[in-house]
Amino acid sequence: MAFRARDWIFPQPPVFPERVTDPRERRTLVVELVLVFSVTLGLSGVRSLLSLLDALFRPEPLAQQQVAINVSRAELGLIDLLKQLLGVVQLVGWGALGLFLLWRAGIRLSRIGLDLTRPGRDTAWAAALAAGIGIPGLAFYFVAWKLGFNLAVQPSTLDDAWWRPFALTLSAFGNAFAEEVLVVGYLLTRLRQLGLSENTSLLISAVLRGSYHLYQGLGGFLGNVVMGLVYGRVWQRTNRLWPLVVAHLLLDVVAFVGYAALRDHVDWLP
After folding, report:
1. Of the candidates 25, 81, 179, 241, which lies 20 to 30 Å from 147 by C-alpha distance?
2. What's the total number of domains in the chain?
3. Is 223 in contact with 38 (CB distance < 8 Å)?
4. Which of these, 43, 47, 40, lies nearest to 100 by C-alpha position?
5. What distance in Å separates the CA atoms of residue 231 and residue 258, rounded to the nearest whole number?
6. Does residue 112 fall inside a structural domain?
7. Per-residue pLDDT reduced to its tens digit, 67-109
8. Is residue 11 domain-resident?
9. Which of 121, 86, 115, 88 is closest to 185 using CA atoms?
10. Residue 184: which domain range?
11. Dihedrals φ, ψ of 211, to 5°?
């Protein structure tokens, strides 16, 4: 048991992928990482930081300010639906970009755990991760909000249209797919190729995950850093990405759809 615990705390990098030693190839990988994240979640992190700074300079305390995740994007319902779907396409495209770059480099999807060879085990891991992160995470959010470290986060302010549950579920999938593929499968694989230690890579991944949640406040940042540490380590030890995607999907579906269904019926939600 002690040996297993040590493997989880101080893991050794796997044999695959091989470390890139050629200086030109290493520079290419670094440029690729900068380009990918400068148009995806890295850019989101910078925008999120600016949103938090803007909130901090307002006269109202953070806890009295609100921020919504899924908002209406048009007056006409059909156009709003189409814009919501385009947002999902963008997120899936971000994740697909990372997968394409890995595939082009000779890294198959099965190498990062996006195959369907272990549905039972993947489902069990997903359920455990969703429960293990979701329940404490919700409690942490409410504590951070009440203490004034977080804005009041509204997962959805969409009108009660027939397509709302459908759009919110797809939005949850888009977020889960983009984040877990890019921040875990893609980024950690590339950092392994650059020769970074597993713990250093994990910290970079977790801080990046927290950065694009800064718009929620310091609680949102810290909560997602912890989530990133757990999810990233599970992937490093199991090399299975589907459990992370499914667990993240479950968390967001409960948050998005559940909030939309309950917000007009309870008074303790923001």
Report:
1. 179
2. 1
3. no
4. 40
5. 23
6. yes
7. 999 999 999 999 999 999 999 999 999 999 999 999 999 999 9
8. no
9. 115
10. 24-262
11. -60, -40
